[in-house]
Amino acid sequence: MSTHDDEPVKRVAYRPDEAAELLGIGRTLLYGLLEAGTIRSVRAGRCRLIPATALDEFLNRPGP
Questions:
Q1: H helices of the chain, where?
Q2: What pLDDT, in 10s, does the model give residues 23-46?
């Protein structure tokens, strides 16, 4: 029997180091993309969070 605790939690936002790892890029490159506005993020106090939808948008945008 499966309980709610057995189900994986769907993340809605990631810290920058987590997002960089998911994308397979370095933190420096990720911060550059954040500063350029290429990837959206939100501030929660001193913490910066990157919505999962922002990562999807970045990955699905048309190339040059």
A1: 16-23, 27-36, 52-60
A2: 999 999 999 999 999 999 999 999
Measured CA to CA in angstroms, residue 30 lies from 6, 9, 10, 50 at distances of 32, 24, 22, 11
Asked if 48 and 37 count as a contact pair (C-beta separation under 8 A), the reply is no
Q: Is residue 52 part of a domain?
A: yes
CA distance 51 to 62: 19
d(CA 5, CA 41): 29
- 2 assigned to some structural domain: no
Pairing of strands 42-44, 47-51: antiparallel
Asked whether residue 4 is assigned to any structural domain, the reply reads no
